[in-house]
Amino acid sequence: MAKRINVEDLNIYYGSFHAVQDVSMTIQPRSVTAFIGPSGCGKSTVLRTLNRMHEVIVGASVQGRVELDGVDLYGKGVDPVAVRRMVGMVFQRPNPFPAMSIYDNVVSGLKLNGVRKKSLLDDACEKALKGANLWNEVKDRLGRAGVGLSGGQQQRLCIARAIAVEPQVLLMDEPCSALDPISTLAIEDLIEELKDRYTVVIVTHNMQQAARVSDQTAFFNLAATGKPGQLVEIGPTDTIFSNPTEKATEDYITGRFG
User: Fold this and answer.
1) Distance in angstroms (rounded) separating the CA atoms of residues 125 and 199
2) At residue 224, does pLDDT exceed 90?
């Protein structure tokens, strides 16, 4: 079952540089939350803290709490690998494993987790590819290289790979920025379907995309050059786009800055 995320007083650092300051928010299960804001304001940095990807960067650190259904993901004894199984990630550019077939790309996470029985892997592959709306396009060529697919298909393959391990949350960092309009529409339609099963958080620079796909929108901004990024406001997408509380949000959405 998709799970709720609570973030409390989150501060994020790269070495001594204070990148993001005092972020608190709640993300409801089975919903899509969009992070918007100008470049460099910390959207992707916050996204990466939700599955402890931030700490793989040398010198990076986090203060505050990130809870998944009340469990602090940064608590003592919590395994970051287990967190990343529960909170999947899809990156800006499609990144299928180049030496692997479509099939092996999808089941790679399951194999890493010790699954070896072919019938289980076969079922999981089909289920994940169907979940990513890719099965009908590739079912007759599962043995071919994943990198041989089109860009949009590769991104859906990466989504299939992420959901094959049955996460609770799916994070997407600008998943359509490298795609053509037709592939972008396919991914947006898929996001709408995925929220029936997952908690989805997406970073996007595309205002129309945020308005189309998300239930909730969080606007991030920089207080000033060299200052940490901050969460300006978060709320229902319809409200954020039609009647935001903060002038900075309105200015960004209407294109007056950013």
Assistant:
1) 21
2) no
Amino acid, res. 214: S
Per 3-state DSSP, the chain is made up of helix, strand and coil in percentages (nearest 5) of 40, 25, 35
| Cβ proximity of 233 and 253 under 8 Å | no
The CA-CA-CA angle for residues 24, 30, 32, to 5°, reads 60
At 95-147, the pLDDT tens digits run 999 999 999 999 999 998 899 999 999 999 999 999 999 999 999 999 999 99
Mean pLDDT, the chain, rounded, equals 94
Task: Give the 3-state secondary structure of residue 116.
Answer: coil
- Residue type for position 42: G
8 A C-beta contact, residue 133 and residue 156: yes
HSE, side-chain direction, 13 A CA sphere, residue 251: 10
Which amino acid is present at 49? T
